[in-house]
Inverse folding.
């Protein structure tokens, strides 16, 4: 293509060092009459997995930590005994249906196979309030005039000795007391301060006589004058003697679109505001699991939460699976996006794998079932299941990713595994496109052989210097090769969320993807979420990965500078790529490591300005993006070539700060945010200054 070479920053730029004294004019010429290549309609999306408490303690609305008591086999993590009077006698203990140390006549307390462990509260002496408290995910959020939905299963002891043969030993533990007088009575449910001195909301239920696993529901509403806080706990308490068993204890605040098993409103709104075109789920490592048996079990994530046992996650904590397959799909629907469904392909994180052939076939069939659940009409088995779960309409689906990061599989089994999955999927669903997780450009010895994959998934986690150095890597990619899905990428600087310098690296990288969005058809930053809480005496640090996009605690949330860059690039995007030529882009020396210096390696130079331009072919609106990565203002001569007229007024949106290491936090959530202004006096040729350490979008009208 005639103008293909115009995309490259390096091929046509005439470089000078930023500290040179020669006066040269930095110029960008946009060839608007050659804007023919289309921008991918799915260029910017989201990637998600359960890491950093992205779901439990994050997007998923549930406020109770360890709601079915399976997070630990030895202690009820997140739960504690509370009592008004230290002289009262009470205790709590996990009761598992299959544990030998549990008295025989207490086994079999499971509600069902999913709810196989419960919490026993024994009250033997009481003069005030005694109960169980949940600390939530680093706190329970309290807001004024807010109604919470609480529910739990409870069983009274109503205990009788089981039948024993004469030769069987009697239990060594003393008999447990029945609920006082075995009569109905009150149980109080409350949200209160951690010291119990302030009650923010409360309600009461009356237990029935001799209850056996009855579910109770109630609402708790805070007063209008309540001060917001995250330093609260959820308590179920009584003032009566007895033994109480609890399971599936739940507390939901108002959720996005008032969904029953829904999402946290502030986090969902931040995602909707990004205007993503797709959501890649469920991972990521969360798809694969540490072992094959820990892979994302989509079938047990369906239906009522009472039927979801949860499973071992990939980042050091258990997943409740309240965020199941249907919730992921409804998440895409809420954002106006489409799913990019990743299916488990027979490789897990600790190296276990299943070779192609008969042993892999059940996993292939499982993927076909999953696709049927997503896309099948109600006459199909899994389509009918979806309808029974409350969503009769099929979901749109165009892309299936076969596995995740299979270059870690040193057995080189992916070639055969991918082909077996692709053949089965394309035979039954020819309209779907399968994505390979091994790009030949990165892992040529492990690439898929034979029929070329239509799309490959490339992952990049780099520092800002790497991003600046490689921002033009797609300028010279083979246009006859597979399309590119950059399914995970980030500039990793700043913790727990990114700083401005990382955002400058992100923006530079994104200009390269935009200039080449005829081949880079999809991209998504990762990780998306991070719970920013540090370790406490009862809970570990919430996050496992630094440099994340959106941060939050139980009460508040904020976007990192990188979040605002993502939002900016998504909002200001045309449908045609505008080719450009550049002149005299300054460069800077990349710092050398001590080892490189000792080895005599010469420093590399990287540009200090990065750019991309797209155009709305219908309206003639130009979106010019410019990234200035250095500490001084840079002025660029901009030529609009091949256009009849230019509006003298343009809109400018800028993200900037004096210190590239500055960032947003819970306490300063808007320290670095986009600022919008207008400029006047534009012509076909004009000069525009770009501030130090800045990302700028110019919206220019040409018709």
């Amino acid at each position: 293509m005639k103008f293909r070479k115009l995309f490259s920053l390096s091929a046509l730029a005439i470089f000078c060092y930023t500290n040179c004294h020669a006066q040269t004019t930095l110029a960008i010429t946009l060839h608007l009459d050659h804007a023919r290549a289309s921008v991918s309609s799915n260029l910017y999306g989201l990637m998600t997995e359960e890491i950093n408490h992205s779901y439990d303690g994050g997007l998923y609305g549930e406020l109770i930590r360890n709601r079915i008591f399976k997070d630990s086999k030895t202690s009820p993590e997140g739960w504690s005994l509370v009592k008004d009077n230290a002289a009262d006698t009470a205790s709590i203990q996990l009761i598992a249906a299959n544990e030998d140390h549990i008295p025989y006549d207490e086994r079999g307390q499971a509600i069902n196979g999913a709810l196989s462990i419960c919490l026993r509260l024994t009250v033997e002496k009481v003069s005030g309030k005694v109960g169980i408290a949940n600390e939530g995910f680093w706190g329970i959020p309290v807001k004024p005039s807010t109604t919470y939905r609480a529910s739990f299963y409870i069983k009274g002891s109503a205990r009788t000795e089981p039948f024993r043969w004469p030769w069987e030993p009697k239990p060594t533990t003393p008999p447990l007391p029945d609920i006082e007088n075995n009569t109905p009575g009150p149980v109080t449910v409350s949200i209160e301060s951690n010291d119990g001195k302030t009650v923010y909301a409360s309600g009461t239920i009356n237990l029935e006589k001799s209850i056996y696993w009855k579910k109770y529901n109630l609402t708790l509403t805070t007063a209008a004058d309540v001060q917001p806080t995250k330093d609260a706990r959820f308590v179920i308490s009584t003032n009566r003697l007895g033994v109480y068993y609890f399971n599936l204890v739940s507390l939901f605040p108002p959720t996005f679109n008032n969904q029953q098993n829904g999402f946290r409103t502030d986090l969902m709104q931040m995602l909707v505001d990004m205007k993503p075109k797709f959501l890649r789920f469920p991972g990521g490592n969360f798809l694969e699991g540490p072992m094959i048996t820990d892979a994302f079990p989509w079938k047990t994530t369906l239906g009522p939460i009472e039927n979801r046992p949860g499973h071992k996650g990939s980042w050091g904590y258990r997943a409740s699976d309240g965020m199941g397959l249907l919730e992921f799909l409804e998440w895409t629907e809420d954002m106006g996006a489409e799913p990019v469904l990743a299916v488990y392909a027979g490789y897990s994180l600790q190296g276990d794998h299943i070779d192609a052939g008969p042993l892999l076939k059940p996993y292939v069939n499982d993927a076909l079932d999953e696709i049927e659940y997503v896309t099948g009409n109600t006459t199909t088995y899994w389509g009918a299941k979806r309808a029974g779960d409350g969503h009769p309409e099929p979901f749109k689906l165009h892309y299936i990713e076969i596995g995740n990061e299979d270059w870690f599989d040193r057995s080189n089994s992916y070639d055969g595994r991918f082909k077996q999955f692709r053949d089965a999927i394309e035979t039954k669903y020819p309209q779907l496109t399968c994505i390979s997780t091994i790009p030949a450009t990165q892992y040529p010895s492990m690439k898929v052989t034979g029929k070329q994959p239509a799309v490959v998934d490339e992952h990049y986690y780099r520092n800002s210097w790497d991003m600046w150095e490689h921002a033009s890597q797609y300028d010279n990619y083979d246009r006859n090769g597979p399309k590119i899905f950059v399914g995970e990428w980030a500039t990793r600087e700043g913790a727990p969320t990114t700083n401005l310098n990382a955002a400058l690296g992100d923006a530079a990288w994104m200009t390269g993807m935009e200039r080449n969005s005829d081949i880079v058809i999809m991209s998504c930053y990762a990780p998306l979420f991070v719970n920013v809480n540090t370790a406490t005496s009862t809970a570990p640090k919430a996050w496992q990965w630094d440099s994340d996009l959106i941060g939050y605690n139980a009460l508040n949330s904020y976007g990192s500078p990188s979040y605002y860059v993502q939002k900016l690039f998504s909002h200001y995007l045309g449908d045609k790529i505008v080719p450009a030529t550049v002149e005299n882009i300054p460069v800077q020396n990349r710092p050398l490591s001590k080892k490189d210096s000792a080895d005599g390696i010469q420093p590399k130079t990287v540009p200090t300005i990065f750019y991309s331009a797209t155009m709305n072919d219908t309206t003639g609106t130009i979106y010019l993006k410019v990234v200035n990565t250095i500490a001084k203002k840079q002025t660029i001569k901009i030529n609009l070539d091949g256009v009849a007229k230019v509006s003298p007024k343009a809109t400018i949106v800028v993200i900037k700060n004096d210190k590239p290491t500055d960032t947003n936090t819970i306490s300063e959530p808007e320290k670095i945010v986009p600022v919008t202004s207008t400029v006047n006096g534009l012509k076909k040729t004009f000069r525009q200054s770009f501030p130090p350490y800045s990302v700028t979008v110019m919206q220019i009208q040409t018709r």
Summary: The radius of gyration is 29 Å. The first strand starts at residue 16 and ends at 17. The domain at 44-61+260-453 is CATH 3.20.20.80 (TIM Barrel). Residues 1-22, 100-104, 158-162 have pLDDT under 50 and may be disordered.
